[in-house]
Amino acid sequence: MEQQRESAELGMWLFLITEIMFFGGMFCAYMVYRYMYPMAWEAGSEQMDFWFGTINTVVLICSSLTMALAVRSAQVGQRKALVILLIITMLFGCVFMGIKGVEYYGHWTEHQFPGPNFQFAGPDAQHVQIFFFLYWAMTGLHALHMLIGIIVVGFIAYWSWRGKYGADYYNPVENTGLYWHFVDMVWIYLYPLLYLISHKHAG
Amino acid sequence: MATAVVPTVERENYLNAQYGIKSWLLTTDHKRIALLYLLSVTFFFFIGGFFALLIRLELLTPAGDLVQADTYNKLFTMHGQVMIFFFLIPVVPAVLGNFLVPIMIGAKDLAFPRINLLSWYLYIVAGLLMMHCMLTGGIDTGWTFYTPFSTAYSNTKVVEAGLAIFIAGFSSIFTGLNFIVTIHRMRAPGMTWNRMPLFLWAMYATSIIQVLGTPVVAITIVLVALERLFHVGVFDPKLGGDPLLFQHLFWFYSHPAVYIMILPSMGVVTEIIACFSRKRIFGYQFVAFSSIAIAVLGFLVWAHHMFVAGISLYSALVFSFLSYFVAVPSAIKVFNWTATLYKGSISYTTPMLYAFGFIGLFTMGGLTGLFLAALGIDVHVTDTYFVVAHFHYIMVGGALMGYLGGMHFWWPKISGRMYPEWWGRLAALVVFLGFNLTFFPQFVLGYMGMPRRYWQYSPEFQILNVMSTAGSTVLAVGYLLPMIYFLWSMRYGKPAPDNPWNAAGLEWQTASPPPTFNFEETPVVTWEAYNYGEIDAKEVPVER
Amino acid sequence: MSAHIATKKLYVGIWAALMVLTVVTATVSRIDLGAASAAVALIIATTKALLVVLFFMGVKYVSQKMTIVVIVSGVFFLGILLVLSMADYGSRAFK
Q1: Where do the structural domains in chain C lie, given as residue ranges?
Q2: Which of B184, B216, B312 lies nearest to residue C88, judging by beta carbons?
């Protein structure tokens, strides 16, 4: 069983580094263009809502705490705590998605979605459009991963409630935790890179 | 006490353990999954080969008279995409690797058997999507789908093809992930890293590349799809985007991808050379680490595909310099194979003929890669048939011949039957001759200046093109022969003993074909790899 | 089970550290540090990421060394992508 647990752990980490490389390609694009168009990046970042971004960061960190505590509950066989903590983690995730949705709606109505309707009053509008493309693509991919995470945590919470996991077997809980923390980590980088570039913030 | 009476009731093995289509489509037995892959990759090999034949037919004459220019663009694009993503990348890992990795380490199956089956289903879904794409218009961007043509100007089904490759990429990632965990966690007692057959080191190195590189091409495809769907994106020059960024991201995977294609075949060649020289591999540690070195160094050289695309001269110098380094571990392997052959007791069986062919042709392909790594020469021959010849020497003369050698070597184990040896040798010779006739003229053509991807050419290039097309028909015959006699052997071939080659390795210590769980009891390994000296002196029993 | 079980106190402590670092990075970003602000932000982000990896994901107490090798190689190869790509862009202006 130990061999199975170690195999599952190694397999999960290998999967996570594929995710690092997957997001990494977009970080590469971000880095290249920030280097080429620093002013446009500042201008774009000033359009981000500082408070939404900061609150979302706090929300995700709290969700990581509850997720870590949930895994710990599984390790010590506390079924009720496990279920409750997983549900709270899901709720935090939903709050994140909600705030993101509000943000996206705001950007959409401000014509900050790249495409024929994109409008930006200021110099370098074309380069700012690239910034926004990366903003939508990177946060969109992150949000997709969050959504998948919320659904998976939901399933794990259900099976935890049914008593499937305990101190002798909790691989799926642990691996879900690893996934959740990874998604949190991506946001830890997205936050300063997208929201904190300029020292003049909106909001 | 019965003597040598062949039992009339067939012993249970993985092939006859369960019957019915559901037992195959829902199997988690790595050996059955390997056969599922064998059927599917062979199917795609035919598709890719079909496109190749059409290309060669068009190039018989200088004028563009068989197909229209746009159609020709689709032919070489789809030839490349099918051959690379649906044949070369999966073939040795998913067929030979899936079959052999657990048995070679003494395990019952891979670490994650259900993910293995998922890998195959992802491959099939990707393949069906690709077929649909090809049947409803195809794509014409070149297999490299460079921007801005692929994002803004091509009228073909770029997103659909991209999605197919995206899904196939995850099939590849999961296979690699499975092998890494299996090799780390499931080796039999006594099977230390340094006792593993070198095929496993090669598979391990390949898996590293699959896991680390494939996600980058996946995100690149996503970005291309987004740009195509929303008509704006990061590669669009009208916005200040850089098409070269696409090339950086694309080649970051696609260069290491060529090592995914060659490393497993190198592993196969190592096994064959040791067995048919009756010697341990010279320099085991060097060969093992050279596989890892190729995997790592292979990630450092990608922009040598972009020398004339517009990267800075300084970074071109850096990538050219690094590209010379990556040749070194491959050369180390060739030296070690040669040293193994020296004073060995050589037998010229079919697998050995393919291995010899591999060494010669891979060396030529690899050395011409160094020509291309030299900036000055590259400016002259880039985007010509020189490049086409270079990569076909490696991928066809190298990877594919290694695969064929491996299929012959392990056919008795996989099927329980012997293939007809003289037909095997004949086919190997036909393949070798056909291959050289097809691709050697292309080196000359490229050097003389014939551009690649053109559907018409200057008349002075015709005679070499005719030679190349003639060679391709010979090559096609050479490929058909094994397909025919392998099928024939399943019914009429001589039943194979457990170890027809008297080879070292745990796979030969179990029945041909193996039982579903590979071994009657978990083996305990107390001997070094390639202990041919002991085997031939009959100091260790090799057949039950 | 040989896995290490962390205390609730440890997790809450890490959470508190992450909160503090978030406040720090948000506050510091309002100060005009010029070229250094990107570096500072990334250093803080990396510190937060390390806290998550080491403690929330348990890497500090992990039983297999291989896990560390896997993580480091993932980060290393991402680094290669970023560094060598920038080698091109960064040197295009050179004469």
Answers
A1: 1-62, 64-95
A2: B312
